[in-house]
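seq:
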Amino acid sequence: MNEITIEQSLVANVENHQVEPDVSYFPPDDEVEVSQESVIDDLAGAKDALSQYTLQTDNNEARNGPDESAGVAEDAVQEDLLAHGLTPGVSLFPPDTTPEEDEKRLQDLLDEMGLNDTAPTPSVSPASSSTIAQGEAPVSHDKGVDNEDSASTGYSEATCALRDLPIIQVKAGELEKTLASAEHVLADTGDYYSRGDHIVSVRFDPAVSRHHIRELTGQDLVVAFAGLSKWSRFDKRKGEWMAIDPCPRICRLLAESWKGGRLPILNGIVSQPSLRADSTVRSAPGYDPHTRTLGMFDAGGFSIQEHPNRDDAMSALSTLDELLSECAFATQVDRSAALSALLTAAVRPSLPLAPMFHVMAHQPGSGKSFLCQLISALATPTPGSPVAFPRSNDACDKLILSQLMKAPAVVEFDNLTTDLRPFDKLCSALTSEYLEGRQLGHSRTVVVPTKTLFLSSGNNVRPIDDMVRRCICIHLDPGMESPAARVYKRPNLLDEVRRDRIKFIGAALTIVRAWVLAGQPRATSPSLASYSDWSNWCRQPLLWLGQPDPAESVFQGLKEDPSQLLLGRVLAGWHEKHGGAPKMVRDVVNAAVHLDETDDFRDALAEAAGGNESINVRKLGHWLARNEGRIVGTYRLRKAPKTRNAENWQVVESDVSVSSVLPISKPT
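struct:
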């Protein structure tokens, strides 16, 4: 027969209040609300057990109830009963006492033995705010249950000291329930999130004074669970639940494979008040379920009018424009592009997509890095950490993914020495809300949000090919021989902005809010593909306030793009030499080699085919295939029906051109 301790007998008869099978929780005393009658009923089992204990007068041996063959009670129980003056042969509960007197006598005894304060009577009560749905241990009164289920009510002696933490019970055959229970514990803390199908937490890095997102491994979760919960496994030999360390296998599966959906999704960290998608102001720190971002900022000093008008927006625009007084812009369009960059920095967490901003100049020391730091100051309170622009597609894949996994407010490429090439991952990060890739050092893929502001700078370098439409250029031109020798009127401007950044963020949000509340008036301007939301908040408000179009550089860049210019030369020469007739590539090449060496069409074909003097037919064919359907000026390249199983190409006239979509005059 199993031995029975006082604690086991007391808890074994408490009514089962199960919420979830694998996590046990013992609510604190101030959450227990029970009537006097329910207390007496719950203690009935303890009375039945303890009333059978009597003492022998000769040998002081305790026997377990009237049936002496039932075995000897535990030594600890015997010693406690003897120490508390139970006279031989006298029952703890005399038959002539009332239930109330029995209950008081038992309570006094438990108080003296130090058991009453650690075994509160459970009741149906709301879940504690500090844990998940509390009271989740399986406790059953049903007769015939196995030892494992019945023993869950007596979680060894350590239970008394651990009842402020949930208990995760590891059972064979219940892996899914155990994973769900463990995830439930993490979700209730409010400190763990789901990002890219992995569990992450936010940590502060004192080295750079910045919060960053850290992906947790199975070992990290073992350490985390050690302080958040208690784990147990049933020992069939001892017939009771035994305390264990957090199960590494459960933690590893939770970190790598489990997707229970209890953890909130974290898209990024917000370092200042921001706007939600519906243009309402998010001014409180903490997790925001609307934007799925975590606000890590002090909202003190932040203020924005509830209903700003156009005059308020003009005043806010002057506040931001004053920050740019030290920058030597080449044109007013470049100044407007810089203002747009400041707006983008303030509202980037609320935008699904945003273009990249590239600051360019002719000479070193023109203030490119200064302007990038100024823009970054409205996105993050800490100074940025620029990285070198990658030189290959593979290097870019690794760099972009590793940067986005940390959810930085800004990714800056400083001092470019080559043009902004259209690497795959960079292009995807600028036109997709999420980016998928293989994590460096792991044989698995991750999916991360792209809510990051991308900046770059360089001398006489510019975006090319597919990067042209994804990048807004800001041209600086101090107009002097040695720009680095300039004397700035406000040399400590960056420190001022970082100190009062909440003020400037409020100005940026005022401009956007005023435009929204004014009915979102839209100026006539060409559409910028993929960036409609950005245009609404960071382009149209400036046009509404009388500024030049900040995206004008995109359309001008399309005309000046080297690849676009080369295609225009090929199409114009092709149409001049062959008209609209379909031609095989080798026929065009054979005709071009007989042209004069100064003929531009011959040079254009050679450049398109690899840049050698001799024109490679195969390379030229690949180049034409990559440019099929593109329009430059009034010409368009098309694929014609095959001849003798060879591709035919033709150049036809088109009514649509890049120049036809360029802004003609300043919007009002």
